[in-house]
Amino acid sequence: MRIAIIGGSGVYDPGILSNIREERVETPYGTAVLKVGTYQGEEIGFMPRHGEKHTVPPHRVNYRANIWALKMLQVERVLATAAVGSTNPDYRPGDFVIVNDFLDFTKTRTYTFFEGGETGVVHTDFTTPYCPELRRLLVETAAALGIKAHDGGVYACTEGPRFETPAEIRMIRQLGGDLVGMTNVPEVILAHEVGLCYGLIAMVTNMAAGISATPLSHAEVLEIMDQNGKNLRELIMQTIPRIPRERNCRCSLTGGKIEVHD
Fold first, then answer.
1. How far is the C-alpha of 25 from the C-alpha of 75, rounded, in Å?
2. In contact, 38 and 237? CB cutoff 8 Å
3. What own/partner pairs with CB < 8 Å and gap ≥ 24 does 13-17 have?
4. How far is 127 from 139, CA to CA, in rounded Å?
5. Which one has a higher pLDDT value, 207 or 243?
6. What is the pLDDT of residues 173-194, one digit of tens each?
7. Residue 200: inside a domain, yes or no?
8. Rounded CA gap, 81 and 79, in Å?
9. Where residue 141 sits, what CATH number does that domain have?
């Protein structure tokens, strides 16, 4: 299994896959659960980040177990989705953004596999946090499909599960954040540490607090996700066949030499 999808809010069903089975993977960090099926003859993994019924809040997601499990299953490429608010007037509800950088404002999470001991102490380079090859393929595929997808955007990750205050959004805007969400850190960090190619498709579901004309609600997020779900599935389905067998990026060289055994 070389490709996996991590579904964010509103993306709980691996609808593009057939012959689906559930896989439970025991890791040193806990149990990870995913669906495994086939698409165009290839085995693909699907992991709902918040659980099948959105039962896990962002600060309680077991990010280390999820990423370690994908590595155990020999996944090389991860296409992740996320629902985000926008702090940038150019990024409107319904738009996709192929993220290229992040800001981290989380507070209570475990951010690394490198805690000394067997994994050692490694200071990982994050000059390119998202796989440039996957980013290029997503942008090109979206253009071919006529789907509006911005090439690049800075994702600011907050702790959640509450939405941000207007003052926090003003701060994020001043620091260069285009999007705001609650899940991409430490997920992208952990994927980078174990050498996975990781690409993030962010769907703008609302303008952020203080910019939006109305109070924010999770129902609004899910409504926009539902409206744009077809385009999101189509973008993923058409990108997967374009992913080459050999990786033409440096993602596998990042981090340390972590040995992952099943």
1. 13
2. no
3. 13/52, 14/44, 14/46, 15/233, 16/44, 16/233, 16/236, 16/237, 17/44, 17/46
4. 20
5. 243
6. 999 999 999 999 999 999 999 9
7. yes
8. 7
9. 3.40.50.1580
Whole-angstrom distance, CA of residue 24 vs CA of residue 28 = 13
Alpha helices in the chain (DSSP H): 63-72, 132-145, 166-174, 184-193, 218-239
The amino acid present at 140, given as its one-letter code, is E
Q: Is 193 exposed, middle or buried (0-12, 13-18, 19+ CB in 10 A)?
A: buried
Amino acid at 29: Y
Task: Tell me the mean pLDDT in the region 38-53.
Answer: 87
What confidence tens digit (pLDDT) does each residue in 227-239 have?
788 899 899 999 9
The pTM for the full model equals 0.91
Measured CA to CA, the distance from residue 62 to residue 146 in angstroms comes to: 35
Structural domain harbouring 213: 3-253
Query: Please, are residues 211 and 147 in contact by the beta-carbon 8 Å criterion?
Result: no
Say if 132 falls within a structural domain. Answer: yes
Is 259 contained in some domain? no
Q: Which two tokens stand for residue 216?
A: 């924010």
Amino acid at position 12, single letter = Y
